[in-house]
Amino acid sequence: MLTVGNPFRIAVFALSLAALGCHAQVPAQGSGALSPEMARRVEILIRSKSSVPPEYDIQIGPRTKSEVPGFDTIPVLFTLNGKTSKPLNFLLSSDGKTLAQFTKFDISADPKTLVSEANRPARGGPKNAPVTIVVFDDLECPFCARMHAQLFPALTERYKDQVRIVYRDFPLPADQHPWAMRAAIDVSCLAGQSGDGYWKLVDYLHAHAAELGGEEKSLAKANAALDSLTADEGKRQKVDAAVLNACIAKQDDSAVKVSLKEGETLGVDATPALFINGEKLMGAQPIELVYRMIDGALRAEGQVPPPPAVIAPVPVAAPAATSATPTTQAAPPAAKPGN
User: Fold this and answer.
1) Is 326 part of a structural domain of the chain?
2) pLDDT cut 90: percent of the chain above it
3) Is 330 inside any structural domain?
4) Fewer CB within 10 A of the end CB, N or C, for the chain?
5) pLDDT tens digits, residue range 224-237?
6) Structural domain total, the chain
7) Within a 10 A sphere around the Cβ of 272, how many other Cβ atoms?
């Protein structure tokens, strides 16, 4: 049932290294205080199972009633150089013979609701499609471009209208992807008036990202090209040009920052990041892995997945996601927006 082992090592070091400096006071000793002999047993076990360095001082608080029958809670704190970690709770059996850990997670919420679509344009199936894939995307990311070029044709062919796809903005910092933020703002300006225009522009930018800025990779040229491409696609979609141009000129990044913040809250630290009915998949992964996750999501919704796909062997695997800008070939060419 509840045992002492590797979880101790993980929990202790996650706490002592990441949270050290978050000051917390040792609970006052009261009627539930452990005897010195019992406190020493607990300390020795924690040190041995978690390989806690000897310079760390371990303080054990009083036992209090827990939610687990037959066990009480005891808070344990780690102190180094005058800095104390947040309390880490252990479970001590009523007879004092067993020390354990117990972590409770709330799974009452449907995972699909944990990732917001934020009124973004969708592609693929209808709003009530059994599977929704939310992708945190960077338009300057070469790995995103590779995934983008492969993903949509493959999913459309295999799943038809069973899967709906939404993109969220997650441009990496300017020192890594200089024009990614402007691209996110510009395409979002167009998305406000034309979902079809938004997707055509996203398709084009992912296919031609390596060309923006010219051979000298000029940021000014890249920004000018982004604005021009957005305005041109707006004309083809017959949107309100004045509204679109004003949005482009304003360069309001507040909505993009909201998307960035939500991604960070969900553990996104690189692109692309996919959430398939709430299940996270990081990086430009093999398409068969995406299929497997979608098939599992369909079964959970009471749907029957398509027959197993036959995947042609790929000579060289696609690189994993990264938060830095690597040197890579451009994505396959695509038609200009609107074509």
Assistant:
1) no
2) 68
3) no
4) N
5) 999 999 999 999 99
6) 2
7) 25
